[in-house]
Design goal:
By secondary structure, the protein is an alpha+beta fold. It is 55% helix and 19% strand.
Length: 456
């Protein structure tokens, strides 16, 4: 609704309210006049009824010419203060009467009400009959409604009419205000709808931008993965080609030297095979041989391997508390834990403490990272090393991403571990901070067929 429409609507509402108030006032005046007319008609009926009653009462007295009885019946009407005068006539002779105003005497003969009509007075003449013959006349003169009572009644009616007019005007003003408020609400609703539409468009555009960003990140990861694979395979092929070239130059004369070339080429081929297996693990397409595994026994069986891999400057603590078992590939699980231990060693160049811990964990509700409610066996690999920054933490599982010097890591260790744990229906998360060390937490679902140990 435009401002012009609102102005016209408010003017129309004001005019309607004023017209309604005027109508109510006019109706009050008409009602007051009508009440006067109704009152006069009612008064004529009442006086006529009293005259009829008096005529019936004095019939016998007139028939027997008993003036005293007639006067008694007339005097009985003096109790009505609205009756000014009463007269009973025997033919044309006044038999009994009373008048409140002594100055205005009753006519000596039966009067004609039409000839004696006066404003503010009601006059009634009723014949007295006996067996169908008229034997007398009853005359009653009554005052109309007193002026003060009439004024009071008119004031009351006008006050009621005025109150009704004010109520109509107030309702009109309220209706105008309500209409204006509704109009403002409609305008706000339209503005809110437009804002919501723009917000939805912005959200759609942001979603598209995020999808494009994710796609760009995926392409960047694929490019990084392709570059890393090409780089590593190029190094391996260089070694193989170099050794084959030396074999062709040396010929078959020096068997020992030839054997060294063959061993170097074979070692490069083994490294290539290991790289392929890591790529398969990262892509979650490596063939697995899952079986029921007791992680406590698995970790205990790797004790010598840990001691040899981490060196003497790193102290190892064992906290093997798990009682449940899991279903996973035994050999791949060994590789994952060993890789994590080696990463922990590299994060503690000056030495430190490596803690290997297992626990039984019950999750009662879905946690962040999509960890559903259920029973899990937890593995914690914790070091007291340098820790990671948030930027490094965010890219820790990206393939070929490494902070180690050239030649000391391919960047596939954590990515392979992350992929294998996901392929085994588990979850892996990293807790770290610069200077406070790193904890790798692995949750593997408890094997349903394994009996539950007694847990306090």
């Amino acid at each position: 609704m435009t401002d012009g429409d609102r102005v016209r609507s408010s003017r129309l509402s004001a005019a309607t309210a004023l017209a309604g108030a005027v109508v109510v006032l006019v109706a009050g005046i008409l009602v007051s006049a009508y009440q006067d007319r109704v009152f006069r008609v009612q008064q004529v009926r009442e006086v006529t009824a009293q005259a009829g009653i008096l005529a019936a009462s004095v019939t016998a007295a007139l028939f027997f010419s008993d003036a005293n009885a007639v006067q008694e019946h007339v005097d009985a009407l003096q109790t009505n203060p609205e009756i000014e005068a009463v007269g009973v006539y025997d033919g044309q002779t006044l038999v009994g009467s009373f008048a409140r105003d002594r100055k205005e005497a009753l006519p000596r003969a039966a009067p004609d009400p039409a000839a004696m009509a006066r404003p503010g007075r009601t006059m009634v003449v009723v014949p007295v009959t006996q067996d169908g013959a008229r034997i007398g006349t009853v005359y009653i003169r009554s005052m109309d409604e007193p002026l003060d009572r009439r004024v009071t009644r008119h004031i009351a009616i006008m006050l009621l009419a005025l109150m009704a007019a004010l109520l109509v005007a107030f309702m009109g003003a309220s209706q105008r205000t309500l209409r204006g408020a509704n109009s403002q609400l409609q305008d706000r609703a339209l503005a809110l709808a437009e804002t919501n539409r723009l917000l939805q468009i912005e959200m759609e555009e942001r979603s598209k931008a995020e999808d494009a960003l994710r796609q760009s990140q995926k392409m960047e990861a694929v490019g990084q993965l392709s570059g890393g694979v090409a780089h590593d395979f190029n190094n391996l092929l260089t070694i193989i080609q170099g050794n084959l070239h030396l074999l062709r130059r040396k010929g078959a004369s020096d068997a020992a030297e030839i054997q060294s070339y063959v061993e170097a080429a074979g070692e490069a081929v083994d490294r290539a095979g290991h790289l392929v297996r890591r790529l398969l693990a990262f892509s979650r397409h490596q063939p697995l041989s899952p079986r029921i595994v007791d992680l406590n026994q698995l970790v205990t069986g790797m004790t010598d391997l840990f001691l040899h891999s981490v060196g003497s400057r790193v102290e190892i603590e064992w906290k093997l508390n798990a009682g449940w078992k899991v279903l996973c590939d035994f050999n791949q699980m060994e590789n994952v834990i060993l890789n994590l231990a080696i990463n922990a060693r590299d994060a503690m160049p000056e030495g430190g403490t490596l803690t290997l811990e297992t626990n039984d964990v019950s999750v009662t509700e879905t946690l962040a990272g999509g960890i559903a409610a259920g029973n899990y066996v937890e593995i914690r690999v914790r070091d007291t090393g340098t820790g990671m920054t948030q930027e490094v933490r965010n890219r820790a599982v990206d393939p070929f991403y490494t902070t180690k010097p050239q030649g000391q890591g391919t960047g596939l260790g954590l990515s392979m571990a992350f992929a294998f744990i996901g392929q085994s229906n588990g979850h892996m998360k990293i807790e770290t901070a610069p200077g406070k060390g790193t904890t790798i937490i692995i949750l593997l679902p408890r094997h349903a067929g394994a009996k539950s140990p007694e847990v306090a």
